[in-house]
Amino acid sequence: MQHFKRRDFIKAGSLLTGAAALSSVPVSSVFAAGSDVIKIALIGCGGRGTGATFDAFASGQNLKLVAMADAFQDNLEKTYQTIKEKFGDKVDVPDSRKYVGFDGYKAAIRDADVVLLATPPGFRPIHFEEAVKAGKHVFMEKPVAVDIPGIRKVLAAAAEAKKKKLNVVVGLQRRYQTNYREAIRRIQDGAIGDVVSGQVYWNSGGVWVRPREPKQTEMEYQMRNWFYFNWLCGDHIVEQHVHNIDIANWVKGKYPVSIQGTGSRAHRTGKDYGEIYDNFAIELTYDDGAVVYSQCRHFEGVSNRVDETFQATNGRAFLSAGNQAILWDTNGNEIYRHDPKGNPNAYQQEHKELFAAIAKNEYVFDDAQHGAYSTLTGIIGRNACYTGKVIKWEEALTSTVDLSPDVYAWDALPKIVPNENGEYPYPIPGKNTDRYI
C-alpha cells in the first residue's frame, strides 16, 4: 500500500468488511432519553431508497422513519405511501418533515439518528459530508462519488466519521453476503495460493429510459434520466460495475497501480442515452504484477453475465451474487463449494449488522474508505477508456475535474447540454479528453 502514503490522501484502511473491520468501540447513545427508538431519515426516494428503507426495517431493531427528502415531490409522495402502507405507525413523517428540493437533505438529516443516502451518486459526497458534520450514523448506497474531487470529499468525511465513531455502511452488499465472505476468507488464508489474475463482469441489457416531457427544464430532464449523465451517475462502469470491481480489490487485498482499457457507444447510441458509453473493457494492474480483466456492457438481446473468477498459483475460484462460490486446486479438484442453504439476504444483512451495532452503542463499521477506493477504481477505469490513456493511480488522484453543475437549481444548466438536434457530446478517445482527466 506504499503508493497511498506518497500522496496527500487519507491512508487506506483495512480491506476487510463488516465487524471484522474494526474492534467494537463504545460510542455515545443516539437515542433520546428514556427511549430505545432509532430515528431514521431517507434521503432519495427512488426505488433503491424504498428498498433500503424496507431492508432497514427488516433489521429487527426498533426503528422509526421520521423524515424524508427528495428533489421531486412525486417521488417523495409515492415512496411515502408505499412505506406507510407496509409499516404503519413505524412511519411518522408529517408534511412538515417531508423536504422537497435540492437542499431538503440538510433538514432531514437534522431530524434523525441514522440517515439512508440513496439519491443518484453525484449527490453522495455532499450528503455524506453533511451527515457526518451533523454527527449521524450512515447507510449510503454505492457508488459514493462520480469524480475524483468527490472521492476526496468522501475520504475527508470518512476520516471525520472515524474520529466521531460514526458507523458507516456502504451498499456494496456482496461484502455482507455469506458466500463471498466465506470464499474470500479462504482465498486470503492461502487456500489457492497467490491470486495472479482474474475476470470480473457486469454484462446486462441496460436500464430504463424516461422520455423528455413538455416544459421540462434541462436540469429536470437530466435528473429524471440520471443514469445517462456522468455528473449524476458516473457511467455504468461506476454505478453498477463497482460491485464486481470491489470484489477484485477485496480478493487482492489492495488497489491497482494503473488502469487501461477501451469502450464505446456501440449499441445505445441515440440521444435518449445522454453521454455515457454502453461497453467497457479494462485491465486493473496491481503492484505485484497481477492483472484483473474487467468487462461491463449494456447490450440488449445478447448473453448476460454478472460474476467474478480468479486464478492463483495453487488453484482458481468462481464467485457470484447468486450465492455461488467454488474453489478448485490446480488439478481441478474441488476444495470448497459454498452451501447457500439458509444464507441471509445480503441487502438486509448489511442493515441488520449496522443497526445492531447502533442499538448496542458500538462503533464497528467504516465502509466509506473501501467504498471510496473501489468507486475511484471505476472512475479511473472510465477515464482511461474515455481518453484512451493508461492512467496511473497516483496521477489520477490529482485530478480537479469536477462534473457537478455550478448551481443546483431547476433553471440552471448542467455542464453537458444537448446540441440543436438534442444530441449530447460524448467522450471520443484522443479528441476531447480534457473534460474527463
From TrEMBL:
Keyword entries, A-Z: Signal
Keyword Signal: yes
Pfam families: GFO_IDH_MocA (PF01408), GFO_IDH_MocA_C3 (PF22725)
Organism: Sphingobacterium micropteri
SUPFAM superfamilies xref list: Glyceraldehyde-3-phosphate dehydrogenase-like, C-terminal domain, NAD(P)-binding Rossmann-fold domains
PROSITE patterns named among the record's database cross-references: TAT
Boundaries of every GFO/IDH/MocA-like oxidoreductase domain copy: 180-297
Annotated signal sequence range: 1-32
Chain ranges of the Gfo/Idh/MocA-like oxidoreductase N-terminal domain: 38-164
Full protein name: Gfo/Idh/MocA family oxidoreductase
